[in-house]
Amino acid sequence: MDRLAIIGGRPLFGDIPISGAKNAAIKLMVATLLTDQSVQLSNVPDLADVRQLLRLLEQHGTHITREGDRLSLHTANIRSTEAPYDIVRKMRASFNVLGPLLAREHEAKVSLPGGCAIGARPVDLHLKALEAMGADITLDEGYVIASAKGGLHGATISFPFVSVGATEHAMLAAVLAKGTTVLENAAREPEMADLADCLNAMGAKISGAGRSTITIEGVSHLTGCQHQVLPDRIEAGAYAMAVGITGGEVTLTHGRADLLGAALASLRETGLEIEQMADGVRVKKNGERLTAVDIVTQPFPGFPTDLQALFMAMMATADGVANIKETIFENRYMHAPELARMGADIHVDGQLARVRGVDRLKGAPVMATDLRASMSLVIAGLGAEGQTMVSRLYHLDRGFEKLDQKLQNVGALVERVPDSA
Ligand code: EPZ
């Protein structure tokens, strides 16, 4: 397992290109199962999660060609309606093939994804939505076995709380259902509109994506299309925070400040200068200390839970006390003890974390149990004195394209250390 060696304390200057959004790309890839024609996706990041999903699509019968950031996916026929545990357990979002398989083939057998390091993450809302559309669902030996003889039908589905995955899953199933589906209390993350734009280009009739109520009029079939994946807002937020902790001036090319939601105001409040330019987002920080700012994670447009760990790392050396409240996942503070090993002063109490800024972090060997937590350790390492060695780099490879290269290009002293070294 590779590690990342970081020598901290260098300000960052230059350009960091922002890749296509992982969490949009993987749902768009799943959507291509809905048509027997070829879908061309561009700006697809080269990430372990994308490769994992390609393995799954291939076994469903998808013909795949990849050239750079362009992916052509063509599923003329569904070869298998089964998604095995071995793949789904490694990448939760692959569970979302259930809806498209059910919509197109009227049957599917998909492994339940199981728990994960940041929380239990059940899929009950996904299953209830599919049942409301007429799916007959049973659970057997860890698999969801679903059928919809005669096809799915439209339904009004009111989610008890906001779920990104369940909203997307319901959308994916409803596009080929008979009649109209209305999703109430739907997720409003930018990835919803991106998915709906692609599905509409394939011939679907979706309106309201990006708002709380989404209406989908079912159609009988979908066609191929070309679609460009939107830029990754979490990657942009991550590099903005890297500049926050080190100082410097970086342009996040292709980045979009409007996708940051409430995080944009929080980052500016800490003292970071963030400006949307024609070619991306310019982030600037002089040598002064950042100001501590409180945040509460919320569904979009609130402060994203995927940036919480990173914000905590940045607050570790801010001036004052930052109160952080995580409301989306029940176990998303696994990075706090690792940051404490680097000298951060963090007190966690249930959903709350209180971060008292210290003058300087000190490099240390650290490891994290999930993707975003690992990135928070990278941010901390960039701001720390001496060397930080981040283990289990495979977490970062799941979601940050060319992380070491992008950081090196703006002057960071980071190096991937192969396992054998
Ligand atoms: C998506 O996960 C993202 N993953 C997550 O990013 C992100 O943190 C999360 O949305 C919130 O923004 C992908 O898009 C692949 P949810 P998802 O359904 O869809 C509970 C990353 O690092 N819930 O909005 O799984 C759930 O347990 C990842 O890139 C149920 O109880 O998130 C959580 O507490 C991590 N039952 C809350 O809802 C359900 O059926 C919100 O989860 C579904 C969800």
Beta fraction? 25-35%
Question: CATH fold name of the largest domain, please?
Answer: UDP-n-acetylglucosamine1-carboxyvinyl-transferase, Chain
Main β-sheet, in a few words? 4 strands, mixed
Name of the CATH first level of the largest domain:
Alpha Beta
Q: What small molecules accompany the polymer chains?
A: ligand EPZ
* Total helical segments: 14
Structural class: alpha/beta
End-to-end separation in angstroms reads 10 Å
Description of the molecule:
This protein is an alpha/beta fold and 421 residues long. The chain folds into two domains: 2-19 and 231-418, Enolpyruvate transferase domain (UDP-n-acetylglucosamine1-carboxyvinyl-transferase, Chain), CATH 3.65.10.10; 22-228, Enolpyruvate transferase domain (UDP-n-acetylglucosamine1-carboxyvinyl-transferase, Chain). Helices cover 31% and strands 25% of the residues. It is built from 14 helices and 24 strands. A four-stranded mixed β-sheet has the order 22-23-1-24. A four-stranded mixed β-sheet has the order 2-15-17-16. Strands 4-5-3-14 form a four-stranded mixed β-sheet. α10 (308-315) links the parallel β18 (295-296) and β19 (321-325). The longest helix has 14 residues, at 233-246. The protein is elongated and about 65 Å long. The model has no long low-confidence stretch (mean pLDDT 96). The site of ligand EPZ has 21 residues, from α5, α6 and α12.
